[in-house]
Design a protein that fits this description.
Blueprint (H helix, E strand, L loop, with lengths): L23 H5 L2 H14 L7 E5 L4 H12 L3 E6 L4 H6 L4 E4 L5 H4 L3 E6 L3 H7 L3 E9 L6 H6 L3 E4 L6 H12 L7 E6 L3 H9 L6 E5 L1
Parallel strand pairs: 1-2, 1-4, 2-3, 4-5, 5-6, 7-8
Helix pairs in contact: 2-3
The chain binds NADP nicotinamide-adenine-dinucleotide phosphate (NAP).
Length: 213
């Protein structure tokens, strides 16, 4: 579905000016993760102040932006992650972190307004139980099961990030205001792209990897 290049042509309507207060590496980490998170948290779920939002894979590239956008909207945010990411998530203003390796999130939370699912599969199926009636499940992985959504009386949607001048502009302004921080854990020269893919496929990355030409 894509590739890597030192130069490419892009439709102007798919771009926005990068934030002024970050370098090219941090700015490059934002478009896919930022648009995916913004489509889910801001557009589809339309998270409101005081709502309870559960983010699965909160420390991942998309999750780390989703939790920050939900906080910008004034929500209380709960994130799932393994132990090594707990301090990191607390620094990113998550209100409660659940260790998915030692705890079942269903035992820790209920009446959730919005679940933002970056894991899918069984995690997504178990998530219906923690939503309040009328709540919203946003998946960026497995396409939600319409039958389960009806059974639990919730709205379930799937996000597929589409290039968006509007959403990139919103994210850029939030980064400039220090309300959203891009998270880049690794950078690799383009020649080491295999290393980057292996790390990503391990499924336990914090934030994003950026390739440098
Ligand atoms: N729909 C779209 O447009 C779109 C766009 C971008 C990405 N995606 C997809 O969204 C998913 C997430 O992508 P990503 O780049 O944010 O992250 P990722 O690199 O796929 O995931 C890494 C994170 O997942 C966490 N994790 C792994 N298993 C978990 C579990 N069972 N419960 C909770 N957290 C778990 C890890 O935390 P620990 O290390 O603490 O375990 C790690 O921080 C991927 O499947 C990706 O392909 C979709």
């Amino acid at each position: 579905m894509g590739g890597y290049a030192e130069y490419t042509t892009v439709n102007e309507s798919e771009l926005a000016l990068m934030p002024k207060n970050v370098d090219f590496i941090k700015a490059a980490s934002l478009p896919v993760a930022g648009i995916t998170a913004a489509e889910g948290i801001l557009d589809l779920a339309d998270v409101q102040a005081g709502q309870l939002v559960l983010v699965h894979a909160a420390a991942g590239g998309v999750g780390s932006i989703a939790i920050q956008l939900a906080k910008v909207r004034g929500a209380k945010v709960i994130g799932t992650a393994s132990k090594h990411n707990h301090e990191f998530l607390k620094e990113l203003v998550v209100d409660l972190v659940i260790d998915y390796c030692s705890q079942k999130f269903e035992d820790c939370v209920k009446n959730v307004d919005v679940v933002f699912d970056g894991v899918g599969g069984a995690t997504q199926k178990r998530s219906y139980k923690v939503l309040r009636k009328g709540g919203v499940l946003i998946s960026i992985t497995t396409v939600p099961d319409a039958h389960l959504a009806k059974l639990y009386s919730v709205k379930a949607s799937h996000v597929w990030a589409n290039p968006s001048h509007r959403l990139l502009g919103i994210i850029s302004k939030l980064v400039d205001s220090d309300l959203v921080k891009p998270v880049v854990t690794y950078t690799f020269p383009l020649g080491q792209v295999q290393k980057a893919h292996k790390l990503s496929e391990g499924g336990h990355l914090r934030g994003k990897i950026v390739l440098i030409p």
